[in-house]
Amino acid sequence: MTGYLELRDVAVSFNGFRAVDGLSLTVEKGELRCLIGPNGAGKTTALDLICGKVKPTHGSILLNGRPLDRLEEHEIARAGIGRKFQIPSVFKELTVPQNLEVAYCRKTGVFANLLRFARSVESDGLEKLAEMVGLEDCLDAPAGILSHGQTQWLEIALLLAQDPQVILMDEPTAGMTAHETRKTAELFKRLKGRHTLIVVEHDMSFIKEISDIISVMHQGRLLAEGTVQDIERNPEVREAYLGSGGITGA
Amino acid sequence: MVARIDSTSDRVPVLRRTWVQISIYGAVCLAIFLVPVVLDNDFLLNKYARYLVLGILAMALSLSWGYCGILNLGQALSFGLGSYCMAMALKLRTVPVHTGEGGLPDFMVWNNVQELPWFWAPFYSMPFALFAGIAVPVLLAVLLGWFVFRARITGVYVAIISLAALVVVNLLIIDQQRYTGGFNGITDLAQLEILGMEFDAYSSASYYLVATVLTVCLFAALAITKSKTGLIMQAIRDHEDRVRYFGYDVAHFKIFAFAASAAIAGIAGMLYTIVMEFASPTFLGVPLSLSVVIWCAVGGRQSLLGAMLGAILVTGMQGALSESETFLDTWMLVMGGVFVAVVLFLPKGLAGLVETIVEHLFGQGRAARAATGKPAAGKDVSGTGKKAEEAA
Chain B contacts of A114, Cβ < 8 Å? Predict the structure, then answer.
C-alpha cells in the first residue's frame, strides 16, 4: 500500500551518529499524524528530512508518488509541504501583515513579484487570518516585539497563509497557555481532512485530543504506531520512555 | 462585517505612510533641482553634482545591503565599470592631437598599440556605451551572484568575495595600460552630447542631468522596495532559511538585488565620468568602495533616501573640512569621530533618527490623524527638505 506521504527506510547520519536510522512512515491524505518519542528520538530530524532541511543518506521520501529527497527546499515547499519550526521562525523586522504577505506565496518568481505591490488584494483575507490567531492588535508592530506565544501563533498563521497540502508542526504548543493550547487543538481539528498534518508534540493531553494515529519514534526508528489506547498499552513504548507512568507521565 | 471595518481602518495608515514617504522623497528631489536656481556658480554646481553622484552610489548599496542583507564591499566595481564605459565612448569622440580625426586615442599611441582593440570599437556608438555602462556591471553581478548565492555563501564571506572581485578588476585595469590607460586612467575626454544637448561638466546642464537621473533611480529603487519582490528581499535579510520554506528561490532574489544595485551603481559611474571629465582606477578603488559602506551606515542603510543623504552629507563635510584652514590637519580625525558617534548612538543612521522623530509626531497626532492627517506630513516634508538643502 502506498500512502500520500511516504518515508521508505530513510536514514541520515551526522558525523557517524545516525539520528534517523531506517525510518518508514506512511501518512494518508487528510490525516493528522502525531509523532512522539523521547528526546533525541529523531522526531525533528524526521521533519527536517521531509522538508529538505536535511538530505537523507539512505532511503526515499515520496509525496503522492513523487520523490522529494533530491529536491531543494524551495522546490519541496512548492510541491506542497509547509513547516513550522521548533524555535518559532518569523521575520522579526517585518510587521505581522508583511510576514503574512511573504507567506502568501502563490507566485514565487522574482519578476512575477516585482510587478505586484507588497500589499496584495488578498490583504483582507490575510488580516482575517491575523485576527483568527489573535494578532489583530499587533498589525503595525514588527514581529520581533511579539511574545513567545504570539510568535508561535504568527508562525501558525504563516502556514495558513501559505496553505500547503502537508503541514509539518514541530512542537506548536510550546510556550502556550492552557487556553491557547485548546485553541490550537480546535484549529488543528479543523485543518485535518483538508490538509495532511504531522505534529511533533510532548503534551499528551493535547495529542489525545487531536490525534487519530500516533507514531512513536525511538533511537531514530519507528517503535510503534496506533491509536492512543494502543500506544498507552504498548510495553515497548513504556520501556522507551523509562517511566512506570507510561507516556502520560513523560 | 467587523473584520472588514477593521481591515480598512488598518489599511489607511499604511497607505498614508507610503504617501508620506513618497512626498518626502519628492520634496528632497525638488530641493535638489532648485539648487541651481539659487546658486549661480558653475564650480560649486560641479562639486555638488559630484556629491549627488556619490549619493546615487550609496543608494544603490542601500538596496542590496539595507534591504537584502548583502554587504557588498565591492560596490565600486560596478561604479568603475560604468565610469570606464562612458569614458571609452567620450575618448573616441575626442580628436587625438597626433593621429587626427578617427585616429587612435593618444595613450594607445604612446603604448605602441597599432589598431583599436575589438572591444573599443562598439563604443563609437553612444547608445551602445550607455547600454554597456549598465549591462557590463549587471552581467558581472549576475555571474558573481550566481556562484556566490547558489552556493549559499552568506554574511562576511560575501563581503570578502565582493572585495576580492573589486581588487582583481582594479589590478587588471592598471595592468592593461595599453588598452585602459593604466594608472592614469582615461583622460582628455570630449563632452557628452545627447540629442543636440551638450553636457559641460561645469554647467547647470550637467547638474540637471545628474539630478534627473538621481530622481529616476531613487524612485525606481523605491518602487522595487515597495513591490512584493522588495518585501521578500527584506524577509531574506531577516531570516533567509525561513523564506526558502515558503517556496521562494532565495538565490534568485539575492541575484536580482545584487544586479539591480549594480545597475544603479553603473549609471552613477557613467555620470561620474561626465562630472569629473576622466575615468581612473581609483573609481574602482578599495578606499572608495569602503567609503560607500560608511556613507550608508551614517545615513541609514535601511533607507534609500537616508543612504543617499548620508553620502551627500559625509562627502560634503569632507570637502568643507579639508578645504578649511582650521581643520586642514585634523579633518580626518573629525570625520572619524562622526562615524564612531553615529555607529555608537544611531545604529539605524540619521534616517533612523528622523524616523523616531516622525513617529513621535505621529504618535501625538494619532487622534487627530483620521480627521485631518495633513499637519504631520507637512512637517516631515519641510524638515527633511531643509536637511537636503543644507547637505547639498
Answer: 224, 227-229, 256
What gap in Å lies between CA B73 and CA B80, rounded to an integer?
13
DSSP bridge partners of A200 = A35, A170
List, in sequence order, every residue forming a beta bridge with B279; answer none if it has no partner.
Answer: B186
The beta-carbon neighbor of B239 closest among A77, A91, A115 is A91
Set of chain A residues whose Cβ sits within 8 Å of the Cβ of B239: 89-92
Question: Cα B382 to chain center, whole Å?
Answer: 24
Place of cell 495633513: B374
Most B CBs within 10 Å: which of A50, A68, A91, A124, as the mutation test of the B interface? A91
DSSP assignment of A59-94 equals EEEEETTEE-TTS-HHHHHHHTEEEE-SS----TTS
Note whether B252 contacts A: Cβ–Cβ < 8 A: yes
* Cross-chain CB nearest to B246 (options A93, A136, A162): A162
β-sheet with A213-218: strand ranges across: A81-84, A166-170, A196-200, A32-36, A213-218, A221-226
**Domains, in order of start, for chain A:** 5-249 (3.40.50.300)
Distance from C-alpha of B388 to C-alpha of B76, rounded to nearest angstrom: 24
Q: Which three cell numbers stand for residue A178?
A: 492552557
% of chain B at pLDDT higher than 70? 88
Of B6, B224, B243, the CB nearest to A131: B6
Q: Are B105 and B94 in contact (CB under 8 A)?
A: yes
CB contact under 8 A, A108 and B13: no
Query: Are A109 and B252 within 8 A, CB to CB?
Result: yes
Please judge whether A93 and B234 are an interchain contact, meaning their C-beta atoms are less than 8 angstroms apart. yes
Nearest C-alpha of chain B: how many angstroms from A98? 7
**Average pLDDT, stretch A60-84?**
92
Asked if A102's CB is within 8 angstroms of B231's CB, the reply is yes
Residue A182, classified by CB atoms within 10 Å of its CB into exposed (0-12), middle (13-18) or buried (19+), is: middle
CA dihedral B296, B297, B301, B304 (to 10 degrees): -40
Q: Do B242 and A78 touch (CB under 8 A)?
A: no
Instruction: Please report the pLDDT score of residue B100 as a whole number.
Output: 75
Give 3-state DSSP helix, strand, coil % of chain A, rounded to 5: 40, 25, 35
Q: Which of B3, B228, B234 sits opposite A113 (nearest CB)?
A: B228
If one counts every other C-beta atom within 10 angstroms of the C-beta of residue A221, the result is 17
List the single residue in A99, A114, A124 with the smallest CB-CB distance to B7: A124
Burial of A21 (0-12, 13-18, 19+ CB in 10 A): middle
Check residue B189 and report its DSSP letter.
Answer: P
- Establish if B331 touches chain A: CB-CB under 8 angstroms: no
- ipTM reported for the complex, 2 dp: 0.90
Q: Average pLDDT for residues B217-242, to the nearest whole number? A: 94
pLDDT of residue B387: 40
- Strands A17-27 and A5-14 come out as antiparallel
Cell numbers standing for residue B122: 562598439
pLDDT digits 0-9 by tens, B149-165: 999 999 899 999 999 99
Q: Do A210 and A204 meet the contact criterion of CB atoms below 8 Å apart?
A: no
Amino acid identity of A79?
A
